[in-house]
Amino acid sequence: MKQKFLILSLMLLLVPTLKAQIHPEASIDINNIKTNLYGTGNFFRMIVQHPGFGPTYYNNYAVPADGDCSTIFSNSLWIAGLDDDNNIHCSAVRYNQVGEDFWSGPLRTTDATNDIYSVMDYHHVWKIKRSDIDAIINNTCTDIPEDILTWPAHGNVEDGYAANLAPFIDTDGDGFYNPANGDYPDILGDMALYCIFNDNYNVHTESGGKAFGLEIHCMLYGFNAPDDEKLNNTLFMRYWIHNRSSNDYNNVYVGLWNDLDIGYGYDDYVGCNVEKGYFYCYNSSDMDGIGEPGSYGLNPPAQIVMFLGGANADADDIDNPKFDENGFQIVDESINGLGYGDGVIDNERLGMCSFVYNNNSATINGDPEKVDEYYNVLKGLWRNGDNIYYGGIGVEGTPGVSNIPCKFMYPDNSDPYNWGTGGVNPNTEFPWNEESANNGTPNESGDRRGLASSGPFTFESGEVNIIDKAFVTYWPSEKFDRDEMNEWADYIKEYFINNLNK
């Protein structure tokens, strides 16, 4: 099992906010996946604290839930954009090796601030079971669970916080959350984890970016569906991102960053599907590892990370179409976005607008470390601002790389409209994937990270952007097959649209 050793910064050992920096957590175990949600923006890791040394982080996205193999090491939300003076605001974490960009709790609606008392009051992840809600509804509940009693439905209005925070069902219609009167949390799925965090309690020591003034609510949820293999191997996540500041931000991008490890973490490939709006990680061969602890062995799964619904497209007072007057697909965000051509004005949501993979290295295609590097990667560029080019490893001047800039790495055959290459047909003999990246020659496998990004968009003061995503662990019937994997992705996307897109 891959281990990454992270040392707490000296600041966290000295300041009185130490407790606020030990990430709250809860686990979800409703289906074939078991993992943890950490309440300050960095998810799916198991943290073991070592007094006097710091924490060790382990893979903790277990699939199957009762096994010791994992498909994801770490997941987090990235967001960056510009203010009216073109200053970069950025909130993003990878491993918290440098510090923090997010802290527990909401922000005041008056000035987008909070304090240590709010941080500590909301330093929690609420775990809610549908069965407990059903017991309340059916009047069979004899002991209301603590996380339902303490559900963070309301903020302290007298201190400047929003009156309504976490969603709830107000059975008596009095506007107040009171589970003793039959009120209960409004969750999705059969089990949900919920947390509230913000980007403006302190200085951003991880990304180095200026704070936006964002209050972020996150719900991770799943379904107990033993008779539905695809749904039973999926977890969903929804973010409500509130701009509590007085600023309107432009050229904003929101990204889903993942360090993906299919069992043994150093023999993986990545790819993306442009039409369907997801990226994925898969083993470079039919055998994962060579018997190491935590390796899957023969015919391992692949991990899909899907944009179900991205940021709000900028309003333009029309229903942006999906097809032109001749019935041909319009080559823009409508390819994998939501709400295009449905007859409703300005309900369009962007989908996956770029995909960039990163290696565990200090090279041009390594991880970003500075604020402008985070912003570049969110825009679908290399961290130094260079274009990604179609073919090879995407780096200009390396073997197999064309002179065609692109936004999506390793799309295989999933971009028939050439959206990612600005309408230019690459006309290559081989599909661009890691098995045939360099004119038919495969890449060397390794420890892959990936960022799917949605944008650009304008994020106005007081606005809320909802981001929906799904984590689908695809189990091949025989061996890894993209067509079969697409069937899994299609099924989950349709399930979301028909049942959860509310």
What brief labels describe this structure?
502 residues, mainly beta, nine-stranded antiparallel sheet, globular, disordered N terminus
Q: How would you describe what is shown here?
A:
The chain is mainly beta and 502 residues long. The chain has one domain (3-312, 349-499). The protein contains eight helices and 26 strands. The strands form seven sheets. Strands 9, 10, 13, 14, 15, 17, 18, 21 and 26 form a nine-stranded antiparallel β-sheet that branches. Strands 4, 7, 8, 16, 22 and 25 form a six-stranded antiparallel β-sheet that branches. Strand 19 (287-288) and strand 20 (297-298) form a beta hairpin. The longest helix is centred in the C-terminal third of the chain and has 18 residues, at 482-499. The protein is globular and about 65 Å long. The model is unreliable at 1-20 (pLDDT under 50).
- Residue fraction in strands: 25-35%
Q: Provide the number of structural domains.
A: 1
Quantity of strands, as a count: 26
Counted by DSSP, the helix tally is: 8
Radius of gyration equals 22 Å
Largest sheet: 9 strands, antiparallel
Instruction: Give the overall average pLDDT.
Output: 92
Overall shape: it is: globular
Low-pLDDT segments, ≥5 res? 1-20
Roughly how much helix do the residues carry, as a percent range? 10-25%
Distance between the termini: 39 Å
Secondary structural class: mainly beta
